[in-house]
Amino acid sequence: MDAIDVIRAKRDGGTLTPGQIDWAIDAYTRGAIAEEQMSALAMAILLNGMTRLEVARWTEAMIRSGERMDWSALDRPTTDKHSTGGVGDKITLPLAPVVAACGAAVPQLSGRGLGHTGGTLDKLESIPGWRASLSNAEMLDVLRSAGAVVCAAGSGLAPADRKLYALRDVTGTVESIPLIASSIMSKKIAEGTGALVLDVKVGSGAFMKTAGNARELAETMVAIGADHGLRTVALLTAMDRPLGNAVGNAVEVAESVEVLAGGGPSDVVELTLTLAREMLASAGLPDRDPAEALKDGSAMDVWRRMITAQGGDPDAPLPSARETHTVTAPASGVLSRLDAYGVGVAAWRLGAGRARKEEPVSSGAGIICHAKPGETVTKGQPLLTLHADDETRLPRALESLEGAYEIGGTPSLHPLVIDRIS
Amino acid sequence: MDAIDVIRAKRDGGTLTPGQIDWAIDAYTRGAIAEEQMSALAMAILLNGMTRLEVARWTEAMIRSGERMDWSALDRPTTDKHSTGGVGDKITLPLAPVVAACGAAVPQLSGRGLGHTGGTLDKLESIPGWRASLSNAEMLDVLRSAGAVVCAAGSGLAPADRKLYALRDVTGTVESIPLIASSIMSKKIAEGTGALVLDVKVGSGAFMKTAGNARELAETMVAIGADHGLRTVALLTAMDRPLGNAVGNAVEVAESVEVLAGGGPSDVVELTLTLAREMLASAGLPDRDPAEALKDGSAMDVWRRMITAQGGDPDAPLPSARETHTVTAPASGVLSRLDAYGVGVAAWRLGAGRARKEEPVSSGAGIICHAKPGETVTKGQPLLTLHADDETRLPRALESLEGAYEIGGTPSLHPLVIDRIS
């Protein structure tokens, strides 16, 4: 087979054969298809699309490029959640312990943040001592002792996707629904979870700005799950405003611990419980009550075991940033808008996120939102508190907050859960 | 500026700004845009097209990536021809001397063959001693002494195009009219010719299979010429059957010398004279008679001076291949079809062409067509003679001739000159 023939077939609007897809992914992983050839193919896929059969095969080929994990040694069903990423999206932190406390095992391979969306591993790494990298045997140990594990994917998992993801990142070929869907699903299927709940974010702070795009991505991923025998359901949820009040790393851990202690912002609690119910149902445990796990402290127990098992100290004080700056309400009235993207970029510029994969992030940096859209504020009251290690970061962060909030007028917000696709 | 922004702009159907184009070509030449980024951009251009302004600027940027030659020291007007390539297309060989004999100077930078289409330099290199590489000063010397020069482009000429051409070749991004047109025109404009006649081939043996595609390419190139102040005219000419009787390297030189001696196949003579008249008119010499230059031997004189000036011996016997095989007519009747592509591929497989840029070609290999479409043949008469250095090449060549000719029925051929675009 020849790389140019495969590129031409997709370029000219054709459908790739299973043999072409298998060969292309394998040859690319081995280096027999050059980066410049794969980027031309990725652009042709982005512009000409892929059929459901092509996407399923592409995903399968990426899974087969590496190992496939297996949790059949556990005595309980596994289920996992994946979020397409947003601002203040710390849901995995309370969710995994809640679901584990209710009897399912959660083997979550997670990622780091890039750009304005945060990464679960970055957040957890703000806990002193906690480490993201585990061997497969360690992962199984944590799953056995705590019921949930959140860690980094090893290099043996879907290496084709790892290589392709890095390539798409620099070649303007990220925004392709078939490529996004197959990237996510290849990792989740290789991860070996028995069921999967997708949280597809919609709005300015999300990758998918409109419900239409998000629905297409969700449907594509649910179809891939079905085609691979993985029970998959997707929720479309709001990302037009930040989730919860805290945006950053340590500040989001602190907010998650509040939720696990039975408190916390109502939207974080609601989404955690909604996703937990979906995960438990998908794992064959529809009768368990996740709210009870928050109330009786059993979710907090799992959290503490999970953090401790990965070297973290759940009682250690979390890092805080040296500098703070408070933005106050310029008028009294209803906070009608607090834009997720603006707040996300501000937190990123404060140091909570990274511009390049190799950069470190600041644990203490971030933003606390003192009011949520729909609430009434009084002129002069604190609206946002910015945290940074370095005051030189403040001006650019403040710039990205200009126009990101509005007082007066009627809020026009997505419902927290927009739709469910299964 | 950022490569990803430029890629995204074209990917999303936008128009690249002059600044984006200048930056992209310069950054790519310097290596600041990676190969995989340029291939994604090339695919986006192939699928989403470029406006006339974009193509003009893209061409300009490629010209400015290197030197621009200047023939103003000559005491006569310059004009050149470029063919998009075909089977048996040796026209440059008689044409350049004819035009020079009529008073214009022809500074032709030419190329080598790739795939089933032949290359002028490969043909000339079958002349013992002849060398393709000249310095600019040598080029000027040959132009002064002979009036015409055909040589290889130096590495300083449109280096961006050189790099991009090699990339497109391996990434399935060759077949883009804006990229083909800007590649050809950037080299021809940088070459410094004062006028240009394009021979855009149409048919199975050409890059453009239909007159519609060929017209689009011709119009794009003529527009680029106009936008750069280069008088440019294009002819669409037939490439559904081979041009002349000889297809190969030395065999085409021999046929060209026949034409220069006043003989040769009528289609080669006709196309040579038609193109010569266009070139002379474009150079401001519309009254010169190229037929006279063939008749009175002045074109042959130029040929001999031109070959000698580049180290070649015009009187040396041309190389011939060790093996020959004759295909005879299987029936009597009118030869209704002799497919240019089939004959081109056969000649290529006999050794006349190369599959990779680094490969040598065989000087002696090729095919002689003993009849042309429209002529009547008798069962058992020689139809094609195959020449190869190595008999193991014969079976594959014969395979590509299967179905390439037809006896009986009415020929349906393009006229030799299909259209003229100016």
Structure characterization notes:
Two copies of one chain form a homodimer. Chain A is built from 16 helices and 13 strands. Chain A has 422 residues and is of the alpha/beta class. Chain A has three domains: 3-49, Transferase, Pyrimidine Nucleoside Phosphorylase, Chain C (Transferase, Pyrimidine Nucleoside Phosphorylase, Chain A, domain 3, Up-down Bundle), CATH 1.20.970.10; 80-309, Pyrimidine Nucleoside Phosphorylase, Chain A, domain 2; 323-407, Aldehyde Oxidoreductase, domain 3. In chain A, the strands form four sheets. A four-stranded mixed β-sheet of chain A has the order 1-4-5-13, with helices on both faces. The first copy, chain A, has a four-stranded antiparallel β-sheet with strand order 6-9-11-7. A three-stranded antiparallel β-sheet of chain A has the order 10-8-12. In chain A, α10 (211-227) links the parallel β4 and β5 (231-238). In chain A, α1 (3-11) packs parallel to α3 (35-48), α2 runs parallel beside α4 (52-64) and α15 (340-352) runs antiparallel to α16 (394-401). Chain A is globular, with a radius of gyration of 21 Å.
Quaternary structure annotation:
homodimer
Overall pLDDT of chain A:
96
Terminal-residue CA separation of chain A = 37 Å
Poorly predicted runs of 5 or more residues of chain A: none
Global outline of chain A? globular
Please work out how many helical segments of chain A DSSP would assign. 16
Strand order of the largest sheet of chain A: 1-4-5-13
Supply Rg of chain A.
21 Å
CATH topology of the largest domain in chain A: Pyrimidine Nucleoside Phosphorylase, Chain A, domain 2
Q: How many beta strands in the DSSP annotation of chain A? A: 13
Binned strand content of chain A = 15-25%
